[in-house]
Amino acid sequence: MGAFVISKRNNDEYKFVFTSRKGKIIFTSLSYELKFECEEDIEKFKQDIASADFLKFKSSNGKYFFKLMSGGNHFATSRKYTTSLRLQKGISEIVLYGSKSEILDFSENDFIFSD
Fold first, then answer.
1. Greatest distance between any 2 Cα atoms in the chain
2. Which tens digit of pLDDT belongs to each residue from 35-59?
3. What global pTM score does this model have?
4. DSSP letters along 88-102, please?
5. Can you give the pLDDT at residue 71?
6. Model confidence at 77: pLDDT above 90
7. What are the DSSP calls for the chain, one per residue?
């Protein structure tokens, strides 16, 4: 199952990514000034995932990507894929697991790692 991972950008704004079951980033959200806005949009997206639109594009260098639209607004942009089949697999992972995925918060720098 995938996960929504909240983190801070270098400019102190928040973003989240959706990662696949294997830990690869599928898409990255737009920036949010406040963390609770980020959390609210994740919850709204999880509830309304069936009505999300995936606009597919091909870049000038031949890579495939999509823009994720929710409620008619640009919500997030996917990573670049080498084939349209891989792009479709990324979309399928979101549709299958997005509503059930957990939210992880890595926006604070107070993690303690032990050996």
1. 47
2. 999 999 999 999 999 899 999 999 9
3. 0.88
4. HHHHHHHHHHGGG-E
5. 83
6. yes
7. --EEEEEE-TTS-EEEEEE-TTS-EEEEE--BSSHHHHHHHHHHHHHTGGG-EEEEEE-TTS-EEEEEEETTEEEEEEPPBSSHHHHHHHHHHHHHHGGG-EEEE--SS------
